[in-house]
Specification:
The chain is α/β, with parallel strands linked by helices and 326 residues long. The protein contains ten helices and eleven strands.
Length: 326
């Protein structure tokens, strides 16, 4: 009997291909081949934070620094399946963060699915925060961090899957023991940019999402199929903070959190529900909706007016949580 050749069964934005024999092929090219806008006002370099898994982060700082700056983490998106600190859309966004907040920006990579299903990305992100703790404690500290960063003024942010990572980090370190584990690092706030949450029951914004959307329901579900543990449904605690098996969030001592949503994003209803439930628990959560915007507008076009508005909002948030010195 003739055997059929392996064929593509899953594809993500032209850079990830999963074949019928479980082979995974990745393109070396970014999914968003946009020009890099580097005007020289921000310096950057790559630093390895996990030699075992060969994971690095990209460190950014304004070229001219006169005082210690807050640290602003940016965990990239991509449904836990694609994306990289090296992609130009990510780099453009980080340039603007470093310049306009201003801040020392840390943009880490993490292991991607399906080769490394969740909790791989979450574990790697925890490891990155613990790496920062070692930097603050003086273990082989990078001179940029040692000379220019204030470890007591840290904000953790991420977009899409990176926003989901920010949630899990807030839970992981949202206790007395968690804060002690990070000392002398102090996380002052979290920013979840269109967080990538899921669930078995469809929301209105998911059900009504047009197929031509940047993130549509088909791609949304594909990301979860490839990233969740095999056999898990979309109510798994990695995807749904309020799923039947998810840990209760009432005990979490949540730092001030900003949740950013886009009016045309299929994830909007989940994000707003997430924020509202936390507020009902008495958590310090704020929601900001961008009218007319779809998923990832700030990395698709980081120089748009909506992105400029987001930058102003982030700067205000950093100031309000006491991260940025007056």
């Amino acid at each position: 009997m003739p055997t059929s050749l392996p064929h593509i069964v899953e594809e993500c934005r032209g850079v990830l291909f999963v074949y019928s024999d479980s082979t995974v092929v990745r393109s070396e090219n970014p999914s968003f081949p946009v020009p890099v806008h580097d005007d020289g006002s921000v310096e950057w370099k790559d630093v390895q934070f996990d030699p075992i898994n060969n994971l690095s982060l990209r460190l950014y700082k304004p070229r001219h620094v006169t005082s210690k700056l807050p640290i602003f983490f940016y965990f990239h998106g991509g449904g836990f399946c694609i994306g990289s600190r090296t992609w130009p859309n990510c780099q453009n966004y980080c340039f603007r963060l470093a310049s306009e907040l201003p801040a020392i920006v840390i943009a880490p990579d993490y292991r991607l699915a399906p080769e490394h299903r969740l909790p791989g990305a979450i574990d790697d992100s925890i490891a990155c925060l613990l790496w920062l703790q070692k930097q603050a404690a003086g273990f082989n500290s990078d001179p940029w961090l040692l000379d220019y960063a204030d470890f007591k003024r840290v904000v953790v942010s991420g977009d899409s899957a990176g926003g989901t990572i920010a949630h899990h980090l807030a839970v992981r370190f949202g206790s007395t023991s968690g804060r002690t584990e990070l000392e002398p690092v102090q996380i002052k706030g979290y920013v979840q940019l269109m967080p990538f949450f899921g669930g078995v029951e469809r929301t209105r914004s998911e059900a009504q999402c047009p197929k031509e959307a940047f993130l549509n329901l088909e791609l949304n579900d594909r990301y979860w199929r490839l990233s969740l543990p095999i056999g898990a449904d979309f109510d798994h605690p990695f995807a749904n903070p309020f799923g039947p098996d998810s840990p209760p969030l009432e005990p979490v001592e949540l730092a001030p959190t900003l949740v950013v949503v886009g009016e045309r994003d299929l994830l909007t209803d989940r994000s707003v529900d997430y924020a509202n439930r936390l507020k009902q628990m008495g958590k310090p959560v704020e929601v900001a909706e961008f009218k007319g915007q779809q998923h990832g507008f700030f990395t698709i076009n980081p120089w748009s007016e909506s992105s400029a508005e987001l930058m102003r909002m982030l700067r205000r948030f950093v100031e309000e949580v006491g991260v940025r010195s007056s």
